[in-house]
Design brief:
six-stranded mixed beta sheet; five-stranded parallel beta sheet; about 40% helix; globular
Length: about 350
């Protein structure tokens, strides 16, 4: 297909890989932030094609994976209510909570529905005035504009039976937390192109300057990722730091300013818990006071629900680039897509799911 195949050509990939081999002289550790990028790297076998000096580690850019278990348990508690229609993107339904997941709630008779846009959930609320309709607002800056628009439209249309269970997280604070850890080994980043399509890449410039590392805004096709890796390795070998934009066909420095303005109107920045990692300061969104009536955690009094993570799951170490899925003792045995210990094994962007599906045992 045009606009897709042109970023998957074998000859072009070979030339870029040869270029990487021509510049690399010593070991480097590079983290791709986005789980979608992880799946492309593993599916296409790019991790196996790169010179042995280059180690790719996988970041926390899977929004499903970093949603804390207590949020899953809160969602389950709300979805089990007979007066609720609980809506969500499909990738959240199999994420394990303490004792169940949303798919189990649905099988038990709960009205749990998959939607493809939060605006669909607003329409469901308008069509069902006798029900409370809740949307599970999960994601990075990529999905935040649509979720903000849903709340904004519901407020203006007076749709009082609509609310969101908000679990938005932000990429730059997570990168800062990774680089601030004493045992981190990341020397360069491939930044998530779709996040930068919304936010631009100006936010990464002070981070790259402060830590003196290269940050390469990168797309999602195989050639994007190989070229992004080449740009990162070239910068590392030359001792350069700063932000470069491989994904220029979609990303500008300033991003989508209209979307940013809408997000700033509806959300404010807050500390946020990341599953398996802990609380990262100023790393998430919460509804502003003007829109707090649409906060499902307060509407249904579930904010105090807590949960404990699996002690066996090492997802947090994987998403910080310290371990890889194949080094987990439970991988592929006690943790499988059918019986996951953690979200990265069931998410379509999870590193563990990629390793399992494409045979990186």
């Amino acid at each position: 297909m045009r606009f897709v195949d042109e970023y998957r050509g074998g000859e072009d990939a070979g030339r870029l890989l040869n270029a990487i081999r021509g510049v690399v002289t010593r070991p480097w550790v590079i983290m791709e932030i986005c789980g979608g990028q992880t799946h492309t790297l593993i599916k296409a076998g790019i991790d196996r094609m790169l010179p042995e000096e280059i180690t790719l580690v996988h970041g926390p850019g899977c929004p499903v994976c970093v949603t804390p278990m207590r949020l899953i348990d809160q969602a389950i508690a709300i979805a089990r209510r007979p007066d609720v229609i609980f809506t969500s993107f499909g990738d959240m339904l199999r994420v394990p909570g303490s004792s169940a997941d949303l798919l189990k709630v649905k099988s038990e008779g709960g009205d749990v529905r998959i939607v493809y846009s939060p605006l669909d959930a607003v329409k469901i609320a308008e069509a069902n005035p006798g029900k409370q309709v809740v949307f599970f607002a999960v994601g990075f800056e990529t999905t935040a504009p649509a979720n903000a628009m849903a709340v904004w439209r519901a407020e203006r249309a007076g749709v009082e039976n609509f609310s969101v269970l908000c679990s938005h997280v932000l990429v730059p604070p997570a990168m800062e937390a990774i680089l601030g850890a004493p045992d981190h080994r990341v020397q360069g980043f491939l930044a998530a192109g779709h996040v930068c399509t919304v936010m631009g890449y100006w936010e990464y410039e002070p981070l790259a300057e402060r830590h003196r590392i290269p940050v390469i805004v990168t797309g999602f096709e195989p050639l994007d990722l190989i070229q992004g890796t080449y740009m990162a390795v070239a910068a590392l070998e030359e001792g350069r730091h700063g932000v470069e934009n491989q994904y220029s066909r979609s990303v500008t420095r300033d991003g989508n300013t209209a979307a940013q303005q809408l997000m700033a109107e509806v959300f404010e920045v807050t500390d946020r818990e990341w599953r398996g990692i802990g609380i990262i300061p100023d790393s998430g969104y919460v509804l502003r006071e003007k829109f707090v009536a649409f906060d499902a955690s307060q509407r249904f009094d579930v904010a105090d629900i807590e949960a404990s993570e699996s002690e066996e799951c090492i997802a947090g170490l994987i998403m910080q680039g310290i371990e890889k899925p194949s080094s987990c003792p439970a991988f592929g045995t006690r943790c499988t897509p059918e019986k996951p210990l953690g979200a990265p094994m069931v998410s379509t962007e999870g590193a563990c799911a990629a390793y399992y599906q494409y045979g990186r045992n």
